[in-house]
Design goal:
Keywords: Signal, Transport. This is TRAP dicarboxylate transporter, DctP subunit. Belongs to the bacterial solute-binding protein 7 family. It comes from Thiothrix nivea (strain ATCC 35100 / DSM 5205 / JP2). One of its GO terms (cellular component) is outer membrane-bounded periplasmic space. By secondary structure, the protein is an alpha/beta fold. Helix 2 links the parallel strand 1 and strand 2. The mean pLDDT is about 95. The strands form three sheets. A five-stranded mixed beta sheet has the order 2-1-3-10-4, with helices on both faces. The protein has a four-stranded mixed beta sheet with strand order 8-5-9-11. The chain folds into two domains: about 140 residues, 3-Layer(aba) Sandwich (D-Maltodextrin-Binding Protein, domain 2); about 130 residues, 3-Layer(aba) Sandwich (D-Maltodextrin-Binding Protein, domain 2). It is globular, with a radius of gyration of 23 Å. The termini are far apart. The chain contains 13 helices and eleven strands. The structure holds succinic acid. Succinic acid (SIN) binds next to loops. The site of succinic acid has 10 residues, from loops.
Length: about 325
């Protein structure tokens, strides 16, 4: 009897050991909506490569990347994450209003002078606090990723705010962006990124706003006759994961993944500067769309018309936070 019990114990132990040895690696699905040759696309692929080469994660984790809205659209990805259907995403900061309206700060027109100021605010204590501000909703921000400053596009030159009057502009799901276009008498239309090209092609919308890399990689310049270099706002990302998934990982795995993510984000940020300049030039060279850069005087008119949006959202975002973001423009 004792011998039989011993054999069963040995068999169970060996079985468990062999199961552990053959445990399937954790699969991390990284879903995003842009092309691979963009800051976000390049960052996601870099992360996948870093994880694959990381001895600390060997046989433990594999990353699968799904670009171009193959898996989920912007708005669906957040729900999918809570259901465990996807583990990583990097939505634009304009898509978090439902989860923390303070993040609308990044949409205020003409708030940041340039990407250096955006970066300075993101790295500040307040910027970092926003990364962990959605934990109660089930999301953890692992870092910010840059894309770049937004430019306006339409089928006519947009030099003055009056030029935008009556035009339908596709926007992301942010009320600040809606208010921004209402300020110039435009009609904002909230639509997912995956639909923008067709909406432009069929003239269901007249215009839009996006950084150079999104315009170029999605060929928006082929279906819009004019692009105005306005740098009127920023389009950046937050890399997010589900709190349940992240906190459920072994500590060593989590630490290794965070290290690889930091490296991938640094690479993506480096690429954002490069792609911004390269893709702007590629659009100009293509001659498919006329690129016009606002003079300082022209730009000031857009500032004057759009800036009242700050006031409309100062209670939602917090006047203090807006002041702190403005300080990032100094120095
Ligand atoms: C993205 O860059 O992820 C999409 C931006 C947009 O929806 O315009």
């Amino acid at each position: 009897m004792k011998k039989a019990f011993l054999s069963i114990t040995v068999a169970v132990t060996l079985g468990l050991a062999s199961l552990a040895a053959h445990a399937e690696p954790t699969v991390i699905k990284f879903s995003h909506v842009v092309a691979e040759n963009t800051p976000k696309g390049l960052m996601a692929n870099k992360f996948k490569d870093l994880v694959a080469a990381d001895p600390a994660l060997k046989d433990k984790v594999t990353v699968e990347v799904f670009p171009n809205s193959q898996l989920f659209d912007d708005d669906k990805v957040m729900e999918a994450m809570l259901l465990g259907d996807v583990q990583l995403a990097a939505p634009s900061l304009s898509k978090f209003q439902k989860y923390n309206p303070q993040l609308l700060i990044y949409d205020l027109p003409f708030l940041f002078n340039n990407m250096a100021a955006v970066d300075k605010f993101q790295q500040s204590e307040d910027g970092q606090k926003l990364l962990t501000s959605m934990e109660d909703k089930g999301y953890i921000g692992l870092g910010y990723l840059h894309n770049g400053m937004k430019q306006l596009s339409a089928n006519k030159p947009l030099k003055t705010p009056e030029d935008a009057k009556g035009l339908k502009f596709r926007i992301q799901s942010s009320d600040v962006l809606a208010a921004q276009f209402e300020q110039v008498g435009g009609v904002p239309v909230k639509k997912p990124f995956s639909e923008v090209f067709t909406l432009m092609q069929t003239k269901a919308i007249d215009g839009s706003e996006n950084p150079w890399s999104n315009i170029y990689s999605k060929k928006f310049h082929e279906v819009q006759s004019d692009i105005t270099e306005s740098d009127h706002g920023v389009l950046d990302y937050m890399v997010i994961t589900s709190a349940e998934f992240w906190n459920g990982l072994d500590e060593d795995v989590r630490a290794a993944l965070k290290k690889d993510m930091d490296e991938a984000v640094a690479y993506g940020n480096e690429m954002s500067t490069k792609k911004d300049a390269e893709d702007k030039q590629a659009i100009i060279d293509s001659k498919r769309s006329a690129v016009y850069t606002l003079t300082a005087e022209e730009r000031q008119k857009w500032v004057d018309v759009m800036k009242p949006v700050w006031d409309k959202f100062k209670d939602t975002i917090g006047a203090d936070l807006i002041d702190k973001a403005l300080k990032a423009n100094e120095g």
